[in-house]
Amino acid sequence: MVQLGLVGLGKMGFNMRERLRAAGHEVVGYDRNEAVSDSASLADMVSKLDAPRIVWVMVPAGGPTRETVAELGELLAGGDLVIDGGNSRFTDDKHNAEVLSGKGVGYLDCGVSGGVWGKENGYGLMVGGDKAHVERAMPIFDTLRPDGPREEGFAHAGSVGAGHYAKMIHNGIEYGLMQAYAEGFELLEAAKVVEDVPAVIKGWQRGTVVRSWLLDLLVRALDEDPELDDLEGYVEDSGEGRWTLEEAINHAVPAPVISAALFARFSSRQKDSSAMRAVAALRNQFGGHAVKKIGG
Questions:
Q1: Catalytic annotation, residues
Q2: CATH code given to domain 168-268
Q3: What is the pLDDT of residue 296?
């Protein structure tokens, strides 16, 4: 069993702490929310850890992660190890690793998938960094990943940055899968020949080529709200989809499904689309097609 410092006890971090503790690991957590924190400050957390230390960071990507890594660089010592398990952009990892390497502190980036269900089911882990650092942290990874063969829930993807790159592509694929299920749901609802849409989707859970955990989650949502009419069709994106498309452009890799899924999310946020008003105007101009006037 190992000792671990865990920075960030939100939805994911909190559940990860619980899963690790249930397996017998000692976890000293720090969060700005005093109600869930084990420590008064980041420095207090570090002081409670025995050297050489391992600290896992689970804070929002971008500035918050970079700032946390920089602060840890001032608090940790040679031989310590930092793991960034958040959704950082892979280009940040080289910078973070360099900040820590000057102090003799190792760095791993770890893409984590599993959401709020990870505590029970385990997390899919994609790790980037030196092999020696990965092996040192393996007891943690083995506890967090799902039960079963290691290679089915864990991958040492490559050098620093590879873990978050793999997670970025994973999330891009996720966008496309979710959009396909969503469009199928809408088409089933639109076709009056199908009288029980939830039953059809539930029937896809076994024996079909479209069965998946995401489909299981859609069935769960439909059990709670068969027509999903308690929800607004407003969907945010957390960044990975955009980064995936940027990489597709950089490498000239066609990604029409992922791009369409991302743009569909943009469309969901528009209560009144200027583009679609222009389309309506053009159809009216060239074909005399009817338009709907505001207030008319």
A1: 167, 174
A2: 1.10.1040.10
A3: 60
